[in-house]
Structure prediction request, 384 residues.
Amino acid sequence: MQLSADSSLRHLHGRLDARRGELEQAALARIVAIPDPSAAPDPAYVNGLRSALAAGLNYGLAAIAAPRGEPGPVPVELLGQARLAARNGVTLDAVLRRYSAGHTLIADGLLEEAAALGLGAAELRTALRALAARYDRIVAAVSDEYEREASAKPGGTERRRYTLLRRLLAGEPLDATSLGYEFNAHHLALVATGASAVEALGTLGGRLDRRLLLTEPDTHLVWAWLGGRHELSRKELDVINTYPWPETCVLACGEPGRGLAAWRLSHRQALAALPIAQKCSDSIVHYADVALLATALQDDLLLTSLRRRYLTPLESKRDRGVLAKQTLRAYFAAAGNVTSAAAALKINRSTLRGRLKAIEALLGRTLDTVHAELELILCLEELE
Prediction:
C-alpha cells in the first residue's frame, strides 16, 4: 500500500512538473501585482525575482515527489533576494506576501492535478502537508535573512560605498567626491559573479591603467566601473575580451560612454546582460552582442506571447517539436541558405524544403514574415 501511495505522489509531481512553465508565468504575474518590485532602485532586485521564483518552485515541487524525506536547505537564491529586498527598502510584508502567492498557486495546481488523478484523501493530505512544511521553512529562513540584513550596522567603508553608489544610480544628486572617481570621464561598467571576481577585476584595472570603482552588493556579486580621461581604445577592449578570467567568474559588460548619465546606462546594460552570461558558456558577454535577448528575457509579456505563438504549435507534434526546432536553428544559422542548412543537417535540399513548408503550415505564416521573432524565441529557449 505504501508503494502505491508513493507512486501516486510521484505521478502527481510529474504532472505538476510538466506544468512548470505555466506555473512560473502565473506566479510571476501574481508576484508583480503585489506592490511593488519595480519601486526597488536596484535593478538586481527586479532581475532576481524570476530566478528566486524558479528556485522556490523547484523547492516546493520537490516536497511532493518525496514528502517523507528531510527537506534540504532553503535555496540561496531566496536568501539573496531577501537581502536585496532589505537593502532596497522593500518591506518584509511585501516579500512574504509574494511567497504566499506562489505557495497558493502551487497548492491550487496540486489540487487540480490530484482531482484529475483521483488521488485519495490520505495521499492528498500528505502532499499538502509536505508543501506547507516547505513553505514554512521558506518563510522562517527568508524572514531571518531579511531581519539580519535590515539590522546590519550602516557603518563600514564597503557598506557606505554601496549605499552611495546605489543612490547615485537611482539618480539622486549627491556629493560623491569621497569615492575618488571621476564621473565626468569615460566609463565602462562591468558586473561579475564568482569567488575570484574582485581580485580579477582589480588586476584588470591595473593592467589597463584605468581607475577602478568597485562594490559588492552581495556575496560573489561585484559591480565595477573602469574610468579614465580618454575613450577606451580597441586595444583596451581586446585586453578585456582576452583576459584569462577565472573559470568560476562570469562577466557582463555594458557599453562605453562618457559622463554620469553614461555611467548609469552602462551599468544598467551590464546588469541586463548578466543573466545571458550566466546561462551561456562564454565567460564574458557584452550587452551590445545580446541586447535583444537581454531585453526579451526581462519582458514576461513578450516571452509568454512568443512561446505561445511559435513554440506551442511546433511542440504539438509527436516529437514535441525537436525536429522542427533543429531544422529552424540550422536554417537560421545558415542565414536562410537552403544548401548550407541541408548540408549541416545531412539531408538533401528537397527534404529540408519539405520540413520548412510543414513548419509554415503549423505556424500559419511564411518564415520570411516571422524570421526575427522565431529566431529570438529559439535562442531564448536554448539559453533557458
